[in-house]
Amino acid sequence: MTHDGTATSQTPEQAVGSKPRRGRVLAVDDERSILNLLSRWLGGDGHEVVGVGSAKEATLELERSAFDVLIADLILRDGDGLDLLRAARDRWPEMPVVAMSGYATIDSAVEAMKLGAFEYLAKPLRLDQMLRVVRCAIDQQDLLRARRSLRRALDAPYSLDAIVGRTHQMRRVLDLVDAVADSRATVLIRGERGAGKTLVARAIHQRSGRHVRPFIELSCAALPQTLLEAELLGSVKDTLHEAATDREGKLHVADGGTVFLDEVSRAGPSLQAKLLRLLQERQFEPQGSSRTQTVDVRLILATSVDLGQEVAEGRFDHDLYRRINAIRVELPPLRERLTDIPLLAEHFLQKYAHQCGRRIAGFGESAVQAMQRYPWPGNVRELESCIERAVVVARGAQVTRDDLPPAIISAAECDAALFAPGSGRPLTLKEALAEPERRIIQAALEANGWNRQKTAAVLDVNRTTLYKKMKRYGVTDPPQGA
Length: 482
What we know:
By secondary structure, the protein is an alpha/beta fold. The chain is built from 20 helices and 14 strands. β1, α2 (32-44) and β2 (48-52) form a beta-alpha-beta unit.
């Protein structure tokens, strides 16, 4: 059997063009001449080649270090090369395997491809063919790595680690998310608007076995009921006035993945009935069709209202509520997570400072106090918008209270008046009323030219009471001539 000829007289660059990325190749053949040939060819193309003569040696090399490509003969001195292909497929599934044989048959080629071989080459080997196959295999590896890297980057904002919080309420949320993520169970997320329901839903999806399949989000409050059903279930031609062709629903797009239905309380009775059937039988009919379809989709539902109350008032189906309420994640509002506010604020500060190319070293104490005294009706979403604004308007090395929106500053000033200066403790009722009373007395005295008799009459108190209050509050007559 010959392995040289016209191809071997060429350089690798002459055979297939410019050099590719350098890769690590494990070559397995019980003929030393073949290993030498592959080492010369692939080494000349810039690759690092490790040659071994048996399946056992190949397995040891694969366990010892990583390779970009495995090239293996199908007939080895210590067994069938197909066994090595099976082991490689099971233990190193992402590594391309090139099978080769001097006794090529259609059956052996078919079997090798069934076992996941990247390519099957018959001996005698050709330089241009071998180089092209190895280069394509390494290109595939690079593409897979790039896709994995992109997927990690895209998934990072929706991972469990992206849910910031150390309060006991949030620890319970994280524990429950972790526990239910890899099941098929339907999850109901309850929380106010802006509390992070979508983030939790995505975290459940990303930690499940469905993370490689689509995550589709649909708000039941964003569309009229007819369009909502068409979006979710799909529709056939002419069932919608504006639809000239069949429409594929979100359930089909997300097959194998997850559909997140936000504000499920806004779904009408017709859609509620169809959701119940979908959960029980995994079946549905597109709008305007009688053909039953089956999908493998996990449903995650969310609501900002009390569904139990909706059931009691006849606006939500009782059977559907019982079906979806088995696993419920309760998201606390931000105003109940005071110790999480600085953590979330710092998280958003790093995010937007990086985006804007700003260097801002955290928050001033007054800014943190102001944020913790604000009730955050828009929850985490409102806090994120607040920090984004602060990054844009801040001019100092830190975000100060003056960099926050006026509503937060105003609320903090009003709230600060209810706390004893320097102690952080709430004022008593007597202490809280003292400052307004002092201001009223001061204003009345000024309006009456500091005449105590007139002032007492206006305030409807006797002169003795007025004098005692002036002394208590440190209100004194202005200097003569002032």
